[in-house]
From TrEMBL:
Belongs to the purine/pyrimidine phosphoribosyltransferase family. InterPro entries: HGPRT, Hxn_phspho_trans, PRTase-like, PRTase_dom. Its cofactor is Mg(2+). It comes from Lentilactobacillus fungorum. It is found in: Cytoplasm. This is Hypoxanthine phosphoribosyltransferase. CDD domains: PRTases_typeI (cd06223). Residues 11-159 form the Phosphoribosyltransferase domain. Pfam families: Pribosyltran (PF00156). One of its GO terms (molecular function) is glycosyltransferase activity. Purine salvage pathway enzyme that catalyzes the transfer of the ribosyl-5-phosphate group from 5-phospho-alpha-D-ribose 1-diphosphate (PRPP) to the N9 position of the 6-oxopurines hypoxanthine and guanine to form the corresponding ribonucleotides IMP (inosine 5'-monophosphate) and GMP (guanosine 5'-monophosphate), with the release of PPi. The gene is hprT. Pathway: Purine metabolism; GMP biosynthesis via salvage pathway; GMP from guanine: step 1/1; Purine metabolism; IMP biosynthesis via salvage pathway; IMP from hypoxanthine: step 1/1. The keyword Transcription does not apply. The keyword Cell membrane does not apply.
Length: 180
């Protein structure tokens, strides 16, 4: 897998440090609130697991699966709910944990849906933010790293369901997706 990576953007150590930093911020903000922390499958699974364990406060965890990509490197725009949470978020403080905010469409879909269900507050913690990709108004409140407008993989992020298990975040060699 390493051979398919053009350059490493964030090492395992840098990712760990970011998780500790964000975990402490969430801990301070949600002390005594018992938030519902919702991880967005599958990209945010490792980040979710590291973030919640870096946060020493009571919290409920849940997962949601939405899809917009259909395997390529460009977001298709129309987001659909694949697997829902089982928690009733009405009147609850919610933290969405995402892998990356690119166009912002997935996030907007989730924010609208959870607001519609009566969440008391909703904040977003995203490992990566790609501001150059934004087409709709949606932003993360807690951000690990800002990334350039390149297709990144690793630590949960995939290309065609591969590379999620890389322990670091890197830029995929363009020939990997242009040859396919
Ligand atoms: P959106 O465009 O809706 O903000 O991003 C939705 C999803 O597209 C993200 O949660 C992520 O799964 C995927 N995505 C966006 N940019 C990248 C990227 O650079 N690499 C990978 N692997 N996935 C991305
Ligand atoms: Mg995602
Ligand atoms: Mg994907």
């Amino acid at each position: 897998m390493d051979n398919d990576i053009l350059k490493v953007l964030y090492s395992q150590d840098e990712i760990n440090e970011a998780c500790q930093r964000l975990g402490k911020q969430i801990q301070t903000a949600y002390q005594d609130k018992f938030p519902v922390v919702i991880g967005v499958l599958k990209g945010a699974t490792f980040f979710m697991s590291d973030i919640v364990r870096a946060t020493d406060t009571y919290m409920q965890i849940d997962f949601i699966d939405v899809s917009s990509y259909h395997g390529g490197t460009q977001s298709s725009g129309d987001v659909e709910l694949v697997t829902d949470i089982t928690t009733d978020v009405s009147g609850r403080d919610v933290v969405i944990v995402e892998d990356i905010v690119d166009t912002g469409q997935t996030l907007k879909f989730l924010l609208d849906m959870l607001k519609g269900r009566g969440a008391k507050s909703i904040k977003v913690c995203s490992l990566l933010d790609k501001p150059a990709g934004r087409t709709v108004d949606a932003h993360a409140d807690y951000i690990g790293f800002e990334v350039p407008n390149e297709f990144v993989v690793g630590y949960g992020l995939d290309y065609d369901e591969k590379y999620r298990n890389l322990p670091y975040i890197g830029v995929l060699k363009p020939e990997i997706y242009t040859n396919n």
